[in-house]
Amino acid sequence: MIFDATDKRLLEFLQQDSKQTNKELSNKLNLSVTAVYERIKKLEKEGFIDGYIALVNKEKVKKNFIVFCHIKLVQHSQDYVVSFEREVAKLKEVLECYHLSGDYDYLLKVLVTDMAEFREFMVKKLTTINHIGSTHSMFVINEVKHTTIINM
Amino acid sequence: MIFDATDKRLLEFLQQDSKQTNKELSNKLNLSVTAVYERIKKLEKEGFIDGYIALVNKEKVKKNFIVFCHIKLVQHSQDYVVSFEREVAKLKEVLECYHLSGDYDYLLKVLVTDMAEFREFMVKKLTTINHIGSTHSMFVINEVKHTTIINM
DNA sequence: TATATTTAAGAAAAATTTTCTATTATGATT
DNA sequence: AATCATAATAGAAAATTTTTCTTAAATATA
Fold this sequence. Notes:
Chains A, B: Residues 3-66 form the HTH asnC-type domain. Two copies of one chain form a homodimer. Chain A is 38% helix and 31% strand. Chain A is an alpha+beta fold and 152 residues long. The first copy, chain A, has two domains: 5-45, Arc Repressor Mutant, subunit A; 65-139, Lrp/AsnC effector binding domain/regulation of amino acid metabolism (RAM) domain (Alpha-Beta Plaits), CATH 3.30.70. In chain A, α2 crosses α3. Chain A binds a DNA duplex (30 and 30 nucleotides) through residues 21-23, 31-35, 37-39, 41.
């Protein structure tokens, strides 16, 4: 499938603000409303767009205590890895989980209200998952930058 | 401001799919279309919603090489910190940057096409920023989980 | 209890999306 | 270069959705 410069610009605009009307986008792209509409539908159908979402303000909903957790497994057998990944993905406090190179461990991005809630998360949820060897938590003092925009 | 259970559910729905019509939301919430409309406008005005965006598929646009970079500064003076944060925020490859506790350093989430592009990023961009003492890169083998949904 | 204030509902108006048809551009083939 | 097929674009019409407006109900306040 051909994915031209106009499609790229369109995706950039939609990543910035998906509530723009096709008319606004058509002005920015020098296209007709229908052309914009058809391009968006094509991008959606081809899988370039995973979805449209609202971004909630973390401070407002009192969930702005971010912790990165490094995790090592006791063993790295297929069974252990699969089991750990399945369990950790279920936890709503875990926004992101990455399998990392090097020390063969994981990096988790955990979002909670405060230290008390993080403690609960560690004790009641994370450490009850099997096969965890060790954990190392890094607390975020300040979120310097956070964007969802992928540059192409 | 009062932020009730219905507002929470509404934010959950909008975080999952912001393209739902007010009619669909009104059915899920047992409200009228106008009531949903007014609640959304209120949440927007009060700052609960930072924006509405399209999520682009990383694989499709060939930007799915994720690297986490740990960075230590040579000094931690106010000047150095401010300068570093300003410069690093400008880099489009850096999706996220966190100031961490403990070793007083930073964690960067970097998104590029491949290792070649990461090398370019390191050599031409990251290491040209002043005050960096040392860096340590962790490559993502697999993205086990990634959500933008904040639980409330 | 009476009075204000907020919240909600339904209808109407305005705006936007979506469909449809026709036209133009693009690329491949000869 | 000419022809054909395919894809992209534009404008108008239809369908849907958002937004506004008015009225009614619920909640809180004095």
